[in-house]
Design brief:
- The chain is α/β, with parallel strands linked by helices.
- About 35% of the residues lie in helices and about 15% in strands.
- The protein contains 12 helices and 12 strands.
- Strand 5, helix 5 and strand 6 form a beta-alpha-beta unit.
- Helix 3 packs parallel to helix 4.
- The longest helix is centred in the N-terminal third of the chain and has 14 residues.
């Protein structure tokens, strides 16, 4: 993807353009990949500018918002969501916020702040049914849209990594999981549940777990706290094209304690892979859902479970967003 110009302190009136706000890789994560794909798919369809929150400056940001009629925010920062929606009300900016995580996943204080941002935003967008119910109760203009946008490049996997995966597949199946970073939920549990997966796979010989951990923080956490489990999986601690890796894998596991509309789950389904995920939120059709790690173990070793379903995003997400952008 071409490098996008990051807007800075130069103030140019862009009343006929849309301001899209978020982050693009690096680092690689569900939201950054979504933003990268979004601005790619908007090309030629609408005039827009992109503000990269990796270079965030509060004063410049506030001045920048005044130059637009419509702005679309992508961030998990509840304080920035509220400031954005409130300031939009003051200056007459049409504010659109996509809530990429599960609404209500924070502690009480942060949840209240998040709920207020939903109330004050013009169009809050939820990405799963659970979140939509909450958003709709707070704002009648709330929408639900999938967080899945089709991949935009086919960057090849390093030949050494490709050979390693093929080597693992000589004697076993290869299942993938990924973790954008080491994170814990409001109850202190690992959001991505990697240590639970490692314990489970330490008792399974027929399947090898491959963990994509681009930050490297999860591998360090496991090394420090569960050293005996470190070698249960093959670790990938670099930025890679996860979609291309999915193509040569045998399945994918999303062992999260909270979620939005997982991009990796949608991609795995689109390739017809066995796709396992927790029941913490409503999952797309075709996902093999489990309630606990014991259920997952039974399912992954059951060779009779097959996935013939291939996910296709029937709704035109970009078209729906373009409708939202109209003033």
């Amino acid at each position: 993807i071409k490098k996008h110009k990051v807007l800075n302190s130069t103030i140019i009136f862009k009343k006929n353009s849309i301001l899209v706000i978020g982050k693009i890789p690096p680092p690689v994560g569900g939201v950054t990949v979504y933003c990268e794909r979004l601005i790619h798919h908007l090309r030629g369809k609408i005039k827009y500018n992109f503000y990269d929150l990796n270079n965030f400056n509060f004063i410049k940001f506030i001045f920048l918002l005044r130059q637009y009629k419509v702005s679309h925010l992508h961030t998990s920062n509840v304080y920035l969501r509220l400031i954005f929606s409130l300031y939009g009300k003051i200056i007459g900016l049409k504010t659109i916020i996509t809530y990429h995580g599960n609404i209500g996943r924070f502690n009480n204080t942060k949840n209240i702040i998040d709920y207020l941002s939903i109330v004050f935003s013009n169009i809050p967008i939820a990405i799963n049914e659970n979140s939509f119910v909450i958003a709709k109760a707070l704002n009648s203009k709330a929408l639900i849209l999938s967080a899945y946008l089709s991949p935009i490049d086919n960057k090849v996997i390093d030949i050494r990594l490709l050979e390693k995966i093929k080597q693992l597949q000589i004697n076993s199946k290869v299942y993938l999981t990924n973790a954008f970073n080491l994170s814990f939920d409001k109850n202190g549990n690992e959001i991505y549940g990697i240590s639970s997966l490692l314990k489970m796979f330490s008792t399974i010989d027929s399947i090898r777990l491959v963990i994509v951990d681009p930050s490297g923080n999860y591998k360090k956490y496991i090394s420090d706290n569960f050293e005996q489990l470190l070698d249960v999986a093959y670790w990938i601690t670099e930025m890679i094209n996860f979609y291309e890796l999915l193509k040569i894998s045998d399945g994918f596991i999303r062992n999260t304690t909270t979620d939005g509309d997982s991009l990796s789950v949608r991609e795995s389904l689109s390739l017809g892979k066995k796709t396992f995920a927790t029941s913490i939120v409503k999952r797309p059709s075709g996902v093999i859902i489990y309630n606990n790690i014991a259920e997952l173990r039974t399912m992954v070793v059951d060779t009779k479970i097959k996935t013939r379903f291939k996910y296709r995003n029937k709704k035109n997400t970009i078209g729906q967003l373009l409708d939202c952008y109209k003033t």
